[in-house]
Amino acid sequence: SYLAEHLINLGYEVHGIVRRVALEQPERRLGRIAHLQDKLKLHSGSLESYPSIFHVISRHDFDECYHLAAQSFVAESFADGFSTMSVNVDGTHYMLAALRELRPECRFYFAGSSEMFGRVKETPQTETTPFHPRSPYGISKVAGFYLTMNYREAYEMFCVNGILFNHESPRRGFEFVTRKITSAVARIKFGLQSELRLGNLDAHRDWGHAADYVRAMHLMLQQEQPDDYVVATGETHTVREFCELAFSEAGLDYHDYVTVDRQFYRPSEVDLLIGDARKARRVLSWEPHQTFGQLVREMVRRFRVLHVGKFYPPHRGGIETHLELVCEGLRRRCDVSVVVANDGLRTISSRAGGVPVTRVGTLGHLAGTSISPGMTRAIRRHPAEIIHIHWPNPTAVAAYLLSGHPGRLIITYHSDVVRQRILAKGFEPLLRKVLDRAAAVIATSPCYVETSDVLRAVKEKCHVIPLGLCTEPYDSVNFAEVERIQSKYGPRILLSVGRHVYYKGFEYLIAAMQHVNAKVLLVGNGPLRRDLEALAKRLGVDDRVVFLGEVNDVIPYYHAADMFVLPSITRSEAFGIVQIEAMACGRPVINTSLDSAVPFVSIGGETGLTVAPQNVEQLAWAMNLLLDDADLRTQFGRAARRRVETEFAADVMTERTLEVYEEVLGITRSSNEVYRGETQLEDSEVSVLD
């Protein structure tokens, strides 16, 4: 996956061959490259089938081929040597043969391995060190190495061998010792595991970061002449050292938890591997950027988070939109999964934009709450270090308490329960219990902490993280559509967006239009739409109030409008994220002085105007004031955009959320720490570049 990302960033068109089952089940098999799938062209094929490889290569005029695919788990190669040889040796031969037949000018990279050296003949190992492999995997890689060399010499093809020493990252599979160690550290730290059983602690390895090594792969294919290169850090560390550093990152002593188990020893051990990459440094001008300590630290800090919500997009709603945005932001920094209720009886697991989502079957609903018994099991079985619940969600709270999950608990408290107060009162003991257990509570505004009876009781746990917005889509203006809207409804346009429900206060906006010479566009639908349409007709303003219903893209309407109006009347409007959408488009906002986050988002006198709820006269006055004063609209609009960038941008929200996670996990961050995206090209068998 690091290679695919690197090449895409360099402007390549990237193709990949994956197993057929991966294309049939992309949500399970290809989830880790979901963020790249719109930039990748994937083809079905198998390294054990020459015709399938031939077919893919025949359809495209490829310039470079990176052959990384293999059965690469050394222990498995002892258990199933036949499959290892078939995939690793025959697969390499099939790739080379097909390229020779169809694309002889295509440059070919073969991923060799330090395991080829095995019982080393010299230390450190260079491109000329004799091979003595000690595993079926190592033997298969030696065969692939000489196949590549043979095609280079016999057929004058541009074929290179990269002899890469151990390259690790948080994307490593959990069966590999480095990921096994770092995962165990987190689980032991939080009481999810008590012991780590390993094999030979004194085996020496040269460990580097995969992101560094893919740069070397690409550089090999950019040279004038093909050659072979060792890629390594030149440092050797034992498994024992890796354990010591990994456990110390969590404040633990590895001696207390690590047990040597002979069953994890290899039948023939490789004791010492250390590479000499002076040739790569000299010829390719390549240098590793990550140190051993940075690598271990990054892998230890790759913790797992399970978000539990009501629903997840494409289900529409404010909390659902927020949940998607925060998970998309966090998934590059930690392993994020989601559990929510499904609309139907079945439980469905899939990927949504790269995030694993389990939609638990629902038996029915009670007072707007899904009855989803399977949610308890879904939470209990998840190996997360953090459970993150989004309230209000009685089902999630009950399921968490029943699950007995030992991970740290975080709750984002989006709002009080306002309408079902009697039911909320009955559920209050469970809510209090789960809040007592929480390591942290996230509130969306400081005013909500002060005005909520529930939050005041746990004020010392509260962290204020306002909801965020990805501003990029709001910067792209469809001028033709904006002009169409303004031509049709202008010249004076007001906009309001939201479901037609009781707390939105649209009836007061409609009444205020009796005193405003403009048109207000209402985007959205809901149970009160017919009543609102009848009200507009009864008041004689049906020519000024336009019910647009749902629109495919609301952004041009924000840009076309002179201002945005949010006339909400109760604290059920806990935040009003539509305000941020309008502010991102540089539009002033008129809102109401609710005891919620609404007036915190858009500040009266700074980014717009704030009026009393249910006050028709003040609402009409505010709209007329801004309609008649273009300079004031511009002043408020610019301030609104600045406020979005500093307080409500998605990356700001993500960073603040991550800080809360690290705080409850006891992770301290250095001032110069750099994070990478963490996704994996899973089930891929070759990356072919056009």
CATH level 1 class label of the largest domain: Alpha Beta
CATH architecture of the largest domain: 3-Layer(aba) Sandwich
Rg to the nearest angstrom? 30 Å
The overall number of domains is 3
Question: Which term fits the overall shape?
Answer: elongated
Largest sheet: 8 strands, mixed
Number of helices: 28
Low-confidence stretches: 670-690
Portion in helices: 40-55%
> CATH H level of the largest domain: which superfamily?
NAD(P)-binding Rossmann-like Domain
Strand composition percent: 15-25%
- At the fold tier of CATH, the topology name of the largest domain is Rossmann fold
Cα distance spanning the termini: 17 Å
Strand order of the largest sheet: 15-16-14-13-19-20-21-22
Average pLDDT over all residues:
89
Structural class: alpha/beta
Strand segment count: 29
Give an account of the 3D structure.
- With 690 residues, this protein is of the alpha/beta class.
- It folds into 3 domains: 45-172 and 207-236 and 272-293, NAD(P)-binding Rossmann-like Domain (Rossmann fold), CATH 3.40.50; 306-464, Glycogen Phosphorylase B (Rossmann fold), CATH 3.40.50; 472-648, 3-Layer(aba) Sandwich (Rossmann fold).
- The protein has 28 helices and 29 strands.
- Residues 670-690 have low confidence and may be disordered.
